[in-house]
Each structure stands twice: as structure tokens, then as C-alpha cells.
Design a protein that fits this description.
- The complex is a heterodimer of chains A (551) and B (645).
- Chain A is an alpha+beta fold.
- Chain A has 3 domains: 2-75 and 117-205 and 308-383, FAD/NAD(P)-binding domain (3-Layer(bba) Sandwich); 80-115 and 207-303, D-Amino Acid Oxidase, Chain A, domain 2, CATH 3.30.9; 386-414, no CATH class.
- Chain A has 18 helices and 24 strands.
- In chain A, the strands form 6 sheets. In chain A, strands 1, 2, 8, 9, 10, 13, 19 and 20 form an 8-stranded mixed sheet that branches. A 7-stranded mixed sheet of chain A has the order 6-5-15-16-17-14-18.
- In chain A, α1 packs parallel to α4 (115-128) and α8 (336-356) packs antiparallel against α10 (366-373).
- The radius of gyration of chain A is 23 Å and the shape is globular.
- Chain B is an alpha/beta fold and 645 residues long.
- Chain B folds into 3 domains: 3-227, HUPs (Rossmann fold); 238-271 and 506-634, 3-Layer(aba) Sandwich (Rossmann fold); 288-493, Rossmann fold (3-Layer(aba) Sandwich).
- Chain B is 25% helix and 29% strand.
- In chain B, a hairpin with a 5-residue loop joins β3 (18-19) and β4.
- In chain B, α4 crosses α11 and α6 (252-265) packs across α15 (622-634).
- The radius of gyration of chain B is 25 Å and the shape is globular.
- Chain B starts with a strand and ends in an 11-residue tail after the last helix.
- The chains are: A alpha+beta (551), B alpha/beta (645).
- The A-B interface holds A 4-7, 43, 132, 134, 136-137, 154, 157-158, 166-173, 175, 444, 447, 454-455, 458, 463, 466-467, 504, 507, 514, 516, 518, 541-543 and B 43, 46-47, 189-200, 203, 526, 556-557, 562, 568-569, 586-588, 607, 609.
Chain lengths: 551, 645
């Protein structure tokens, strides 16, 4: 069996999100035009394509038009067109629409979509072109030879909590590929390893992230119209906290809403899930949601640092696309179209490499050239300092960003931002009101409008096999105790939106970490935000994790 | 080369079967999966293969073409070939017709007596959307090969299959020859994950689709015409729980006193209401009345023995048996078949509980229950006495003995009934009234519906859920006759060897059968659930069938075992009384216990959601309340549950 547990393909794409599928489709198109037969395989850790896809998506269709032919494009599953778009400033009690759209923010005419539906559709499209797609398989590691990537190994299954093989042990298959494209999404676990191993971050800033928490509701009649779009800023955030909410009317009494906050916040006790619940208690939201029912819940991180945080994205035999690369245009709150474009650039690069049978770094540097010529640079370069100046707060940042709009992004006094895990304050250094005091009285959840984390997680349909080593690895449990628990008060118990981390206090008062890995919804916040980078997110068994539908 | 044949069914994912707004189970939105028990059977097949030198693994299913995805999954796990019997004509088949169709397919593939006999069939114990557990036994009887059901573990040794069979309160180790059929419980080795290489292989392997014609099965033997039973009607059962009644009192002992008073007086428990359709059931005039019994008369029941005693469910069975006899012609007899070694002395006990005639089969080889000779004896007794109805308790033995016997008598079976009545069936199409007929009612779709099943072939066979009917009052004045029956048995009936039988305390198996479950949550972690266990033991000392369980955090902390975990990822239980102590009431936990008859919640936090899912509540500290409860139990308070034996 072992000898046979191997596959060989030409191109392996890890992740069936928009960028991975765009790579697959465009590459298949290019090869099919030449009548070339190459084996392109896509694997995804979700049980189905789309299971791990979450986004509050208003798409610009142009990128889809470039990827798909006319017929394919016309059949894209669209929820509806945006008919109105308002940006609302919230204070604790009031809500007032801005009389204008902030730059890049007008969405009228854009389409509201379910990104998981779109991905299912793109996967079907790719399969018709001869691409092989296997959801339900997670890659644990890349395989190297002479310090070059030559393949990938699937996660071994049938192992107990202590790492002992069980009777149903199944060794993960090995896939050898001439070229591997990492399209794992935000904070990809393989991309992270590769970037470190080959020092791909040498000439870029550390990536910055937000966490977005999202819910889908069925609401009472006419609480919000189909195609009605709102973005909120202000309450419950303070000016220095970067983030806001979105509310999209989907029709058929459905609404999707989400709340995002930049992970460069300081309060070690800040709880993004709770922020969303607090936000929902604002009269503006309450009016829409009251009397409705929550149907789905989820969360993911967004790599939002922009142009300055994009690392080198190629090395011998390997390319990185989409959110793993960091193609998000933050002022417009959009990344899907850039993910698609990065996939197309990668496909073009792969095509040339296949033709030349040369997958060297030199050959693959074409990817960078294509990106620089594409809409990615056009859209990201002028706003490259947006996220950095916004860290100074809405007013200073807003002013500086206004100036950048005139200067093509050039900005004096741009703050250099550290990675998010360094932004958290120690308990003793944090002088503002801690989260629980700041929102006292708003943290009792009624399970009608607002939900505690355990209840919310139920609506993510997440599931993990009981028998497996925990996929959340604490680097050094003693250090974790000294630093993360004692000095920081264990921020992971607050920032995790799925109640994975629990502070356990025993009879003697000793505090320790309990990990409920089975709750994990794969947002990767712990991998990003934990002080001292003490927690590493590894992929669990393929097929485990949330089962999002239409998120 | 041995062939391992796995029988597999695809079902809607149970957790995704949500109640729609109309109160109906919405199956359409549910994803399809391999039936859980069948997935354990698939793994058992793979395990057997690892012990056999070179075995071929094939997987068979019957159903619509959409089943192909699950058959492919079996291939991705390591199976070699997949066959799907798929034909519109099969629609409406009951378990009898399904068993026949599947065994005919297996014969068509070249296996069976007189053909290739070197095979082992592994199947799931039962399906989550049917819950009958009939088909494996029916397939085994149709192929005329030995069987073992409710199997947890299998091994292959020296040309034989060694199987661990779960029985009430214990287990049995059986040694079976080839060929044989095994049905697997979902408690052994969980199904392995497919490998990517396997998935690629599955994609490139064709599932061979067979039609009814392909396997030479005639149309009248399948579908509705081949099914001896029909589903006559399905009604919704609506579960309603009244708002919680909270205990009052200034001290712990007053609070506990108040709780006890509330429990004693309050009818606040789960009410299952049948939403009855107001349709008067009167046959229009001019309909022909059909008595399809053709001379069959009387009720036959089985007296199951354990440790030399008649089991409680077998005595319970005499209650519906007697009621049915009373609804039929005067003089309709209740007969009970008592099989064993030196068991004549037990016959009188059955008469005292209402049996009119006890048929005794005495044979030293029959000291322990064995499916082959017992089903043969049943068929012979049925032939001689020609009963119109035959009832078994739905125990692990009854649930295999009924279907295997039924194939011999060409009858249908209704599994796990909670209601048995005599009624009539109005056939409007053919303008006929079938009467009298046995109406067997059974809960289905996760207890959300009650289906009425009818059989048109005598004997009409049903199994009755243990604990549903009361044991009839013992009356030494009751008279009856005892007769002996000498069955014809063959050596082949004893090819399966019982290596050992272990019946003990039962332990974890009992969590499903306990009348009272004392369940501990996070609030009871302080003393590692010691008081929970003490309360459980105090109840046991009072003769109550009690077990302790826990919520998920306790298992995570290593305080309780996974087997005792109640909830979405643990077990679903429905005891008479569920006592939730220190449990907050997360949705995931509620999903596993909400069907309990009475729920009592004790928690120090008054706002926990457990209270909105309980009948009786008490706000108080675990460490104070539970000792008081233990004291009261020791004084004789048993939450309204009567002492068992």
C-alpha cells in the first residue's frame, strides 16, 4: 500500500478558493487552446468546495469577465445587484448616513454574491476543462529535494490524541508536482512555512490582518430590501481601532452581516465575537434583526496590509496566490477580484513554465512582472499606505489618506507597523478601560439577538474528528504560562471567535490553557495575534472544520 | 480467495435533518452520507482484509443513482469494486423486499450456497432513516447462511470469523464459519479517512449499476407488490415542554423539599402530542370485507431468557399480546414459546403473567440463545400453531430473530413498536376493507413521527420496544396449559460456536437504557463528579436503573469518559428522568437529551439556558444541593421511578 500511496501531477494547486480555481481555469484554458494535456490537480481541506469559504462579498465583475467565457460568465450564481449603498456613522445611540461615499466605496451596480456558491461554480467549470478537484484533503507539509519544493504530503489520519497510530490509520498520500501553487487563503499554513524557509518576506513589511465575524439571518418581512447595502463605522469601536460592519440585504428575508476589526488592537481582553454581538444591540441593527433567526455563523481573517505587505511570491517550483499572497484592496474592502487576477497571472506563468519545462525561480519571476502590469498594482500601489496611516486613527489617518489620494499614495511620516502579535499590550501596560468594563451591561447574550460563543459556533456546523492530535500547537507550554497567561491574561481566550481556548483554573488557583480544537473554524487568528507567536495553526484532518453554506 | 462483501446504504445526514417550519422533517436540505453503521461495516471489511491474505473487497448498495457518491467513497477507503442495484421498480420496497433484492444481487454476483461460498458479508446494524435492523438478517436467511448481528469487533482466525456481539448488559464472543453475514454497531473501529490516492482511484473506477432485470428478479417480488407490509399513515409527534417550575426555599433542604414536591405533584414533563388528522375512518358501504388470515389465529410471543430468568421485556410483551387477543374473536389465545434447557419451571411464571399456553422446547444445546436453531424452531412452531400475530421484544436477540423468522414464513416485520392495536385497513382503490389487522405503530425520523405499519401476511410480526409496555400484574389464579414441542434441528443449525457470554453490570451500554441519568457538567468538576457518582449509586441501591453521564467539558478535562458524553458529538439519550447538574445547557448538549421525559436542572447560575429546557429547576450550589438529594434518595425518594428488579 505504502509504495502505491503516491501521485504525480504537473501542477498541484492547494486550495479551491477563488484564486486557486482561477489559476486552474485559466491554465486549463491556455493549455486546452494548444491542445496540451497536463495534469492539474486542486486539493482543498474543506469537506466540499466552498465549505471553508467565507466572505462578505460585493464583487466587481470585470475580473470574472476576464477569466470566464461569455456563457460561463453569464451563469455565475449572483445573489443580487446592489441597489443602494450607504455608509453609516454609528454612535452608541445614533446612526447617521454620510452624505457622500468615502473614496473607493461606492458599490452601486456591484453584485452581492455568496463566495462559497461562486467557488462551487468555478470548481464545476474547472472540472469541465479537465482539472481534477479533490476536496476533503489537507496538506500537512511540502516535500523538498535539494532545498526545492517537489511535492506535498496529505495529513495522516487515524492517529489518537497522543500521536499513536490507531487501527484505522491511513497514511496521507504524497503528491509530486512540477509546480505547486499555494492558494490556501488568509494566513496559509504552507505559505507561512515557505515564506520563512526562503526568506520571502525580506523586502516587505509584515502582513497585517483583520478578523471578520459574519452571520446570516432570516429576518421578518421588509426589514431590509434585496440589494440594500450598508457599511458602518464608529461605535462600538474607538477611533484608534480599525474596522466596521457591513449589512447586505439578500432578498427572501435573508440578510448577511459582519463586523471586522484590525488585529493591531492593543487591549489584550478585546473580543471580536463580542464586538459583533455588541454592534448588533445598536438600534440600527436591532431594527433589522429583531424577530429574526440566526442561521449561520463564521469568521475568517483578512490580509489587509496592502501593497507594502506583499512578500515575494515565488521560488523554485512554487507560486503563491490570492489571500495567501495578500491581495486585498482595503479602502474598497475588496480582494476577490484581485485574487482572481493573481490566479490568472500565476496561470500564465505556469503555462510558460510548462512550455519551457523550466520551473526555476528565474522563470517564475514572470509572475511578479505580470502582477506589476495587472490591476493588482494599479489598485493597490496608490493606496499602499492606507492601512498604515489608518492605524493612527480615523481622523489623522483619514486626513493622511486624503492627501495620498492626490499624491498617488506617497506619504511622509508613514508609520511602520509591526506584526499583529506585537501590537497587543501586556495587562499591566494597558491603561485604557479593559473590554469588559468598556462594554459592561452589553455582554449578557440573550440567544435571540445575541449569542455566546458556544452557541454561535453551533451555527458554523464545525466538526473535527475526536481522534487526532490537536491541530493547534503551543510552542512552549512553560513560556506560554509565564508570558501569555501571566503577563497578557491569555488573549486567545478572548480573540478566538469559536471558544477554542479556555483558561482553566484548578482548585489551587493555578491557571492553565485548555484547547477545544474541535470548535475551531479555521480563521487562523490565533496564529496571527497570539503574543510571542506562541500558537501555530496546522491543518487538521481533511474535511474537518466548518461547513459553511452560502457564506 | 475470500471476498468481503459490504452492504451499504446512503442516508440524509441526521444532524442536518432539521425540523421545517411546518413541523415536518426537512430531508431535502440534508446532505447525504454513508449511514453511520454502514461506515463501521466498511471499516470492519478493511480490518478483515488485513487479516486475510488476499481478499477482494466489494461494496453493494441498493438505491437511486445518487448513491454512487457513497459507493465511490468506499472505493476511496480501499474497496475494489462497487455495485449498485438501482431501478425505479424497487421504489416502495419494505425491508422484506429489500432483503430479497439484495440477496438476489449477491447471488447474481456469483456468491451463495452451491456457488462461490468463500465470502463474508459485513453490513451496518441499522440505518438512521429506517432504524429497523432487519435487512442483514433477511439477507442471511435468504442466502441460508449463518449470521451475527450487533457486532462490535471482528477478527479472522484460522478460517473463521471471531465476532464480539453486544447483548443486553454484556457481550458474547461468537465463532462463525464462512460464508456468514455480520452486522456492525457504530461502536467499534471508526471508518478510516480516504486517502487522496484512493480518491483518485475512486474517480476512475466505474460503479457497476444493475437493474432488476439484470439480476433476474421478477417484478412482483419487489417494490410495493413484493412488500408484505405497508406504511398506512404517518402522524407528527409534537414535543412540548411546559415552562420550568423552579424550586423555592430559604435553605438548601427547603429548596430540595420544594423540588421533590414539585416533581411529585407536577405533570410538567414532556408531552408527546399526536397531531391527529380529523378524518373519520369509516368504510363506505359496499366495500368487501376481507379476512386475510385464512384460518390463522392467536398471538405467539417469545420468552427470552437471560441468566436463566425470563427477561423483563418478554413479560412486558404479554400486555399488548393480551390486549390484542381481547380485541379479536373470543377465545383467541396468547401462546408463548419458551426455548432453553431445563426451563419447564419457568412456564408457570408466564401463565401467571397472562399467557394461555406455554410451548416449551427443551434441549441442552439451546441453553444459550442462538439465531439459527431458534429461528428454525419459530418457523416450525408457527407452521404448527398458525398464529395470526407473532411478537418479540425489540432486544438485540428479538431484533434479529424476528426478521430471520419472518423470511422463513414470508412475513413482513415492524420493528421497535410503541403501539400495537387491532384495526382495519380501508383499501379505497380496490373497494376492500381488510379486517381485523394488526396496526403496529413505531416512532420514526428521530422520534418526530409515528408511523403505522400494516402487514397482510400471517403471522403479522412485530417487535416491541422494551420499557414501553407495563409488565402485566402477576396473578397466581391465572390458568394455562404447558405443552412440549420437539423441533427438527440439524447439525448446520449449530455451526456458530458461542465462545463466551459475559453479562455483568452492563456498564456503559446502560446509558441508553437507564431510567434515570444523573449528568454532571462543568459545575461538578470541583470534586471530579464524586457527588454525581454518589447520587447515581444511591439510586442504584434503591433498585433504580440509574447511570451517570456528563457534558462535553467533563470529557475534555478527563473527568468522564467519552462513552458517557451526552450531546451532539456524544450520545443522544431519552431516559425517564434526566438530572442535569452544573450543566449550562449549550445547544450541543441539549440536542442529546431534550427528548428525556422529565428534565431536572440544578445550577448555581439562574440565567443558564439549561433552565429553559427543563421541567423542574433548582438554583443552588452543587456541593450543597446534591448531598441533600442523596440523603433524600437514601430515605426512599426516587424521582417517581419505580424500582426495577
Amino acid at each position: 500500500m505504502k509504495e502505491n500511496n503516491k501521485l504525480e501531477v504537473d501542477v498541484l494547486i492547494v486550495g479551491a478558493g477563488p484564486s486557486g480555481l482561477s489559476t486552474a481555469i485559466h491554465l486549463a484554458n491556455l493549455l486546452n487552446k494548444d491542445g496540451e494535456k497536463k495534469r492539474i490537480m486542486v486539493v482543498d481541506k474543506g469537506q466540499e468546495v466552498g465549505s471553508h469559504i467565507l466572505s462578505g462579498t460585493l464583487i466587481k465583475e470585470q475580473a470574472f469577465k476576464e477569466l470566464l467565457n461569455k456563457e460561463e460568465f453569464e451563469n455565475l450564481p449572483i445573489e443580487c445587484e446592489v441597489i443602494s449603498d450607504d455608509t453609516i456613522r454609528l454612535t452608541q445611540q445614533t446612526s447617521s448616513p454620510l452624505p457622500f461615499h468615502p473614496p473607493y466605496m461606492n458599490n452601486i451596480g456591484n453584485k452581492i454574491v455568496s463566495l462559497s456558491k461562486i467557488c462551487k461554480y468555478l470548481a464545476d467549470t474547472a472540472i469541465k476543462k479537465g482539472v481534477e478537484i479533490y476536496p476533503g484533503f489537507a496538506i500537512s507539509d511540502l516535500i523538498y529535494k535539494d532545498n526545492k519544493v517537489i511535492g506535498a504530503k496529505c495529513v495522516d489520519t487515524g492517529i489518537d490524541k497522543n500521536g499513536e497510530k490507531l487501527k484505522n490509520f491511513q497514511e496521507g498520500s504524497t503528491v509530486f508536482a512540477k509546480l505547486i501553487v499555494l492558494a490556501e487563503g488568509s494566513r496559509g499554513s504552507l505559505a507561512k512555512k515557505v515564506k520563512t524557509k526562503f526568506a520571502l518576506r525580506a523586502n516587505s513589511n509584515p502582513q497585517l490582518y483583520s478578523i471578520g465575524v459574519k452571520e446570516i439571518w432570516t429576518i421578518k418581512d421588509d426589514a431590509i430590501k434585496k440589494g440594500e447595502v450598508y457599511h458602518t463605522f464608529g461605535y462600538p469601536l474607538e477611533s484608534k481601532e480599525f474596522g466596521g460592519g457591513f449589512i447586505y440585504g439578500l432578498g427572501d428575508n435573508r440578510v448577511e452581516l459582519g463586523f471586522a476589526i484590525g488585529l493591531d488592537y492593543e487591549d489584550p481582553t478585546l473580543d471580536p465575537h463580542a464586538l459583533m454581538q455588541i454592534w448588533k444591540q445598536h438600534p440600527f441593527l436591532r431594527n433589522i434583526l429583531e424577530g429574526g433567526t440566526l442561521t449561520q455563523y463564521g469568521a475568517k481573517t483578512i490580509p489587509e496590509g496592502g501593497w507594502n505587505c506583499i512578500s515575494k511570491l515565488y521560488t523554485d517550483n512554487l507560486l503563491i496566490v490570492g489571500d495567501s499572497g495578500g491581495f486585498v484592496a482595503m479602502p474598497a474592502l475588496k480582494g476577490v477580484h484581485l485574487g482572481l487576477t493573481s490566479g490568472m497571472c500565476a496561470a500564465q506563468t505556469a503555462y510558460e513554465a510548462l512550455k519551457a519545462n523550466d520551473f526555476s525561480e528565474a522563470r517564475l519571476s514572470l509572475y511578479k512582472k505580470l502582477i506589476d502590469k495587472s490591476r493588482i498594482k494599479k489598485e493597490l500601489y496608490p493606496v499602499r499606505n492606507f492601512r498604515a496611516v489608518m492605524s493612527e486613527g480615523l481622523f489623522v489617518g483619514g486626513f493622511k489618506f486624503g492627501v495620498q489620494l492626490i499624491t498617488n499614495g506617497f506619504c511622509l511620516l508613514t508609520p511602520h507597523l509591526p506584526k499583529d502579535s506585537l501590537s497587543t499590550s501586556k495587562l499591566s501596560d494597558f491603561k485604557n478601560k479593559p473590554f469588559k468594563e468598556r462594554f459592561a451591561g452589553k455582554l449578557e447574550f440573550d440567544k435571540k439577538l445575541t449569542f455566546d460563543k458556544d452557541s454561535s459556533v453551533f451555527y458554523s456546523n464545525t466538526h473535527h474528528d475526536e481522534e487526532q492530535p490537536t491541530h493547534l500547537v503551543v510552542r512552549d507550554i512553560n513560556k506560554f504560562s509565564q508570558i501569555n497567561i501571566n503577563q497578557y491574561g491569555m488573549p486567545c481566550q478572548y480573540f478566538c471567535p469559536a471558544a477554542v481556548y479556555e483558561e482553566h483554573i484548578d482548585k489551587s488557583g493555578k491557571r492553565s490553557l485548555k484547547i477545544h480544537a474541535e470548535n475551531c473554524i479555521h480563521c487562523k487568528t490565533c496564529d496571527i495575534k497570539t503574543p510571542n507567536d506562541a500558537i501555530t495553526w496546522n491543518p487538521p484532518y481533511g474535511g474537518d472544520g466548518p461547513q459553511y453554506q452560502n457564506m | 480467495m475470500t471476498t468481503i462483501i459490504s452492504l451499504m446504504k446512503q442516508v440524509p445526514l441526521p444532524t442536518q435533518m432539521r425540523m421545517g417550519e411546518d413541523g415536518l422533517m426537512d430531508r431535502t436540505k440534508a446532505k447525504s452520507i454513508i449511514n453511520i453503521d454502514c461506515s463501521f461495516a466498511l471499516e470492519a471489511g478493511l480490518q478483515l482484509k488485513s487479516m486475510l491474505k488476499d481478499a477482494k473487497l466489494i461494496v453493494c448498495s441498493m438505491g437511486p443513482p445518487s448513491f454512487e457518491q457513497s459507493l465511490k467513497k468506499a472505493i476511496s477507503m480501499g474497496y475494489d469494486e462497487a455495485y449498485l442495484l438501482s431501478d425505479r421498480k424497487l421504489g416502495g420496497s419494505d425491508t422484506f423486499a429489500t432483503g430479497l433484492a439484495i440477496s438476489t444481487m449477491i447471488k447474481h454476483l456469483g456468491f451463495g450456497k452451491g456457488a462461490n461460498e468463500d465470502f463474508i458479508i459485513v453490513a451496518g446494524r441499522q440505518t438512521s432513516d429506517g432504524d429497523t435492523a432487519h435487512v442483514p438478517s433477511q439477507v442471511a436467511q435468504n442466502l441460508d447462511i449463518p449470521q451475527a448481528t450487533f457486532i462490535e469487533h471482528v477478527e479472522y482466525k484460522d478460517g473463521h470469523v471471531i465476532a464480539k456481539r453486544i447483548i443486553e448488559g454484556g457481550y458474547q464472543v461468537l465463532k462463525l464459519p464462512k460464508p456468514c453475514t455480520l452486522s456492525l454497531t457504530p461502536t467499534g473501529i471508526p471508518p478510516r479517512r480516504p486517502s487522496l490516492v484512493g480518491a483518485v482511484k475512486a474517480k476512475n473506477t466505474e460503479v457497476k449499476i444493475l437493474s432488476v432485470e439484470d439480476i433476474n428478479l421478477s417484478d412482483e417480488k419487489i417494490g410495493l407488490s413484493g412488500s408484505p407490509t405497508i406504511v398506512a399513515k404517518v402522524v407528527n409527534i409534537k414535543s412540548e415542554r411546559a415552562p420550568v417550575i423552579m424550586s423555592k426555599g430559604d435553605s438548601v433542604s427547603l429548596q430540595v423539599e420544594s423540588l421533590i414536591t414539585n416533581i411529585k405533584s407536577g405533570k410538567n414533563t414532556l408531552q408527546k402530542v399526536e397531531k391527529k388528522e380529523a378524518k373519520a375512518k369509516v368504510a363506505p358501504e359496499g366495500y368487501e370485507r376481507v379476512d386475510f388470515r385464512e384460518g390463522a389465529s392467536g398471538i405467539l410471543t417469545w420468552a427470552e431468557l437471560a441468566n436463566g430468568k425470563i427477561t423483563r421485556p418478554s413479560l412486558e410483551l404479554l400486555t399488548p399480546a393480551k390486549n390484542l387477543a381481547n380485541s379479536l374473536e373470543k377465545g383467541t389465545k396468547v401462546r408463548t414459546l419458551l426455548i432453553g434447557h431445563n426451563v419447564e419451571n419457568l412456564a408457570q411464571e408466564l401463565i401467571y403473567h397472562g399467557s394461555d399456553e406455554v410451548i416449551v422446547v427443551n434441549d441442552e444445546r439451546l441453553e444459550e440463545y442462538r439465531i439459527l436453531p431458534f429461528s428454525s424452531i419459530f418457523a416450525q412452531v408457527i407452521e404448527k400453531y398458525n398464529p395470526e400475530i407473532t411478537l418479540f421484544a425489540a432486544t438485540t436477540a428479538g431484533r434479529e430473530l424476528a426478521p430471520r423468522t419472518a423470511v422463513k414464513t414470508q412475513s413482513g416485520v415492524t420493528a421497535d413498536c410503541t403501539g400495537l392495536e387491532i384495526g382495519e385497513h380501508i383499501d379505497r382503490k380496490n373497494k376492500k376493507v381488510f379486517a381485523p389487522i394488526l396496526e403496529s405503530r413505531r416512532p420514526t425520523y428521530g422520534e418526530s413521527k409515528l408511523a403505522t405499519i400494516l402487514g397482510f401476511h400471517c403471522p403479522q410480526i412485530s417487535t416491541a420496544r422494551a420499557g414501553t409496555f407495563e409488565v402485566p400484574k402477576r396473578d397466581e389464579n391465572l390458568k394455562g396449559t404447558v405443552s412440549n414441542f420437539k423441533p427438527k434441528l440439524e447439525d448446520d443449525d449449530f455451526v456458530t460456536e458461542i465462545i463466551k457470554t459475559v453479562r455483568g453490570d452492563g456498564g456503559l451500554a446502560n446509558i441508553f437504557e437507564a431510567d434515570i441519568i444523573v449528568s454532571g457538567g462543568r459545575g461538578t468538576a470541583g470534586d471530579d463528579m464524586m457527588l454525581i457518582k454518589e447520587l447515581t449509586n444511591a439510586l442504584k441501591e434503591q433498585g433504580i436503573n440509574a447511570e451517570y453521564a456528563s457534558s462535553r467539558p467533563m470529557v475534555d478535562m478527563g473527568i468522564s469518559e467519552y462513552a458517557r458524553q451526552v450531546g451532539q458529538t456524544g450520545k443522544t439519550v431519552r431516559p425517564k428522568v434526566y438530572i442535569a447538574i452544573g450543566i449550562s445547557g449549550a445547544i450541543q448538549h441539549i440536542a442529546g437529551m431534550k427528548e428525556s421525559e422529565t428534565i431536572i436542572a440544578i445550577n448555581i447560575h439562574p440565567n443558564e439556558s439549561i433552565f429553559s429546557n427543563a421541567d423542574f429547576g433548582l438554583v443552588g450550589d452543587y456541593n450543597d444541593v446534591v448531598p441533600e438529594l442523596i440523603k433524600r434518595v437514601k430515605e426512599g425518594f426516587t424521582f417517581g421511578i419505580k424500582k426495577g428488579k
